[in-house]
Write a structure and sequence with these properties.
This protein has helices at residues 23-32, 55-63, 76-88, 101-107, 126-139, 160-171, 177-193, 201-210, 215-222, 232-241; strands spanning 3-4, 7-8, 44-49, 67-73, 94-98, 112-117, 140-148. By secondary structure, the protein is of the alpha/beta class. It folds into 2 domains: 3-152 and 230-241, Vaccinia Virus protein VP39 (Rossmann fold), CATH 3.40.50; 157-222. α3 (76-88) links the parallel β4 (67-73) and β5. The structure holds S-adenosylmethionine (SAM). S-adenosylmethionine (SAM) is lined by residues 4-5, 7, 13, 16, 18, 50-52, 72-75, 78, 100-101, 118-120, 124, 128, 220.
């Protein structure tokens, strides 16, 4: 299994669209919350950290010709798909950078009105989280918007033992991340059928629901060594230390 700082890299994360990281959504929401937002009726720039196959940037670039979009990811398979998609539809205002966050911090010389990161923070090593905050502190323009998605308590708390079990089992199984994940999940399902979680009926439901998801998605979700839901208050403190002010949830 190929990993980068404990994060799986041998499979690309399947594309998921998140309206919350679109500039029009973020700028509108900031204004609803009574704060000045970057003016998206003039040229502006936006960077997604951990963009995967780039679906969110591709949609943003196609629908916002005034925006310049940059996606950063350490997974070259995902970026090859993102670049091919941009080329096939003739987008010239989106670029994909193959780098981890530390390297991007060294090589980048652009400043951004928006920096967004979805599905990344709670799955990466603490030093990589620090790199994200350093990037934002250095490259977000004054009055720019930073969107940070993370997994939090108490919603994600019931999955803590399941993730630990899947991750540990996968380490002992052969194959790619997807194969390891599928075999580990089969084993957890057998444990469930044997009654291991009989006093946790909600956990059984969650395990059964996992079987409906693609193994590539689950490998990213569960096979990282740094999977950790956080308390919102801790995230707010960390982000404040990097010089940002909390505006509100991006989920209106
Ligand atoms: C779960 S995917 C999220 C993709 C996309 N943001 C979304 O929400 O659909 C997380 C992405 O972060 C990337 N990633 C993880 N650690 C990274 C690092 N240290 N530097 C750059 N990219 C990283 C992975 O390669 C992966 O594509």
């Amino acid at each position: 299994m190929n990993t980068h700082d404990g994060y799986v890299m041998d499979v690309a994360y399947p594309p998921h669209f998140h309206k919350e990281i679109q500039p029009v959504w973020l700028a509108s929401l900031a204004q609803f919350l009574g704060t000045a937002a970057p003016d998206i009726t003039r040229p502006y720039s936006c960077c997604e950290l951990g963009c995967g196959m780039g679906i969110n940037l591709l949609v943003a670039a196609a629908t916002n010709p005034l925006g310049q979009f940059v996606g950063v990811d350490a997974n070259d398979k995902a970026l090859a798909i993102a670049r091919a998609a941009a080329k096939s539809v003739g987008l010239t205002n989106v670029h994909f950078v193959h780098a981890d966050f530390a390297h991007f911090a060294q090589s980048n010389n652009l400043f951004f009105d928006f920096i967004v990161s979805h599905g990344v923070w709670s799955w990466i090593a603490p030093n990589q989280q620090k790199n994200i905050l350093q990037l934002v502190a250095k490259f977000l323009k004054p009055k720019g918007l930073f969107y940070l998605h993370y997994m939090c308590h108490p919603g994600a708390t019931p999955m803590v033992p399941i993730q630990a079990l899947l991750n540990d089992l996968a380490k002992q199984l052969p194959g790619t991340s997807e194969q390891k994940l599928s075999a580990a999940l089969d084993f957890v399902c057998q444990l469930d059928l044997a009654g291991a979680f009989v006093d946790q009926p909600q956990l059984s439901d969650k395990i059964r629901a996992l079987k409906q998801k693609p193994p590539g998605y689950l490998a990213h979700d569960f096979l990282t060594d740094h999977w950790a839901p956080q308390h919102s208050v801790d995230i707010h403190r960390l982000v404040a230390q990097a010089g940002m002010t909390f505006l509100g949830s991006a989920n209106a």
